[in-house]
Write a structure and sequence with these properties.
A seven-stranded mixed β-sheet has the order 16-15-14-17-18-20-19, sandwiched between helices. It is an alpha/beta fold and 409 residues long. The chain folds into three domains: 65 residues, Archaeosine Trna-guanine Transglycosylase, Chain: A, domain 4; 101 residues, RNA methyltransferase domain (HRMD) like (Transcription Regulator spoIIAA); 212 residues, Rossmann fold (3-Layer(aba) Sandwich). Strand 4 and strand 5 form a beta hairpin. 30% of the residues lie in helices and 27% in strands. Bound molecules: S-adenosyl-L-homocysteine (SAH). The site of S-adenosyl-L-homocysteine (SAH) has 19 residues, from helix 8 and helix 10.
Length: 409
């Protein structure tokens, strides 16, 4: 056989090398956890290109799984199959993408004017790839070298599965650093709209700026929580803190007939989109402000303001287990102030998207708030992300969002 050019194995999907685990380190991977950290690896046999296919073997030489190699990341191998018969070729990725898209159809998340997460990384067996659909457009977020080296071949597969009008590819800067990715490499396919793309969620229209907003443009994970929260509004006054483009606010006004909504966020861009949403949906009584939410909370408490519902959906307060205590103190502070604003019988909708803060941690924090404020907090609903963001039972890193709907007595 001739000398094999380095990208050929990427195409045929066969293993280029074997990654041998240290003794006692194979268990999580037999348990289908998809991230092999460098610390678990004893050595690599053979030469493997960046993003190339490798077989993961136990130290006794037993096949564990097949994955893609990244010498630049602490997650040295991402695993995609536990079946030795699976070859990681184009057909494999085609099947995985088609399955993920089909699952959203089964959930009823396929209305053409709607939006949904079509591919959620590990939870769909596609570690390092997130794809959101906004009506006829897709936004793909690449979070692993393995996917970046294949992106040119994955885009046609997405086109095959979804037939969008255009695809925008984004790379998150912070993750790019961890993975050794080129973050300035903007890619797209087909038509990329100049202005916003309009979508509908629960009968409310939103203009989404693809690829320039936060996340892929909209917080799709909160979709069902926006509707659930709205059910408790019952014509009351609502304060929506960290409101981004106003998802909870508009749902409270339209679905919950809120008499008055105040949404606050620090991002001027997000608030401009939120204002556009008020116009688009003709919703009087909804007001948005650009401000720091910590300052705004202090000011509203000082002014003796009252809201029948306060929604707290802050950004991640921690990325690691190390700073969980600090994060919990920050959650405590804003929840404590929020409770002060709520009259007896009112509702607190409190969220955390910090994956390293567990549900138990969060409940414990709420217990502290109840104790210090002398109020009972009844948790009515403990919610997570919408079902198009499934949690993989063998990769609990896919669970991050907590949304608790509470009655404050
Ligand atoms: N609830 C929103 C998503 C919120 S994401 C939705 O359903 O769409 C968190 C938001 O917090 C972001 O919009 C970010 O701009 C905002 N943010 C972060 N720190 C902030 C601060 N100190 N003050 C105000 N807003 C802040």
């Amino acid at each position: 056989m001739n000398v094999v050019p380095s990208e050929t194995p990427l195409r045929h999907g066969m293993a280029e090398a074997q990654v041998i685990l240290k003794p006692q380190k194979a268990r999580p991977f037999f348990g289908r956890h998809p991230w092999v950290l460098d610390s678990a690896i004893d050595h690599v046999e053979g030469h493997v290109a960046d993003g190339g296919v490798v077989d993961l073997l136990s130290h006794t030489g037993k096949f564990v799984a097949r994955g893609l190699y990244n010498p630049h990341s602490r997650i040295r191998v991402r695993l995609y199959t536990w079946s030795p018969a699976d070859v990681l070729d184009e057909d494999f990725w085609r099947r995985r993408i088609a399955q993920a898209v089909e699952r959203r159809r089964q959930l009823g998340y396929d209305r053409p004017e709607g939006a949904a997460r079509l591919i959620y990384s590990e939870a769909d067996g596609l570690s390092g790839l997130v794809v959101d659909r906004y009506a006829h457009y897709l936004v793909a977020q690449v979070t692993a070298l393995a996917m970046q080296t294949r992106v040119d071949r994955l885009l046609p597969l997405l086109v095959e599965a979804v037939a969008p009008q255009g695809i925008v590819v984004r790379t998150d800067r912070a993750l790019a650093r961890l993975e050794g990715l080129a973050s300035d490499e903007e890619r797209s396919w087909g038509a990329v709209p100049e202005g916003p793309v309009f979508i509908e969620e629960h009968g409310i229209r939103y203009g989404i700026e693809l690829g320039i907003g936060q996340k892929t443009g909209f917080y799709l994970d909160q979709r069902e929580n926006r509707r659930a929260a709205a059910a408790y509004v019952r014509g009351g006054r609502v304060l929506d803190l960290f409101c981004y483009t106003g998802g909870f606010s508009l749902a409270a006004a339209r679905l919950g007939a809120a008499s008055h909504v105040l949404g606050i966020d620090g991002s001027q861009k997000a608030i401009a989109v939120a204002h556009a949403g008020v116009e688009l949906n003709s919703l009087p009584g909804v007001r948005f402000e650009v401000a720091d939410c910590f300052d705004a909370l202090d000011a509203l408490v000082a002014e003796g303001e009252r809201f029948d519902m306060v929604i707290l959906d802050p950004p991640k307060f921690t990325r690691s287990r190390k700073s969980v205590d600090e994060a919990l103190r920050a959650y405590h502070r804003i929840n404590r102030l929020a409770v002060t604003l709520i009259p007896p019988g009112g509702t607190l909708v409190t969220c955390s998207c910090s994956g390293s803060v567990t549900r138990e941690d969060f409940l414990y924090m709420l217990a502290g708030v109840a104790q210090q404020s002398g109020r009972d907090i009844q948790v009515l609903e403990q919610r997570g992300a919408a079902p198009d963001h499934p949690v993989s039972a063998t990769c609990l890193e896919t669970e991050y969002l907590k949304c608790f709907i509470c009655r404050v007595v």
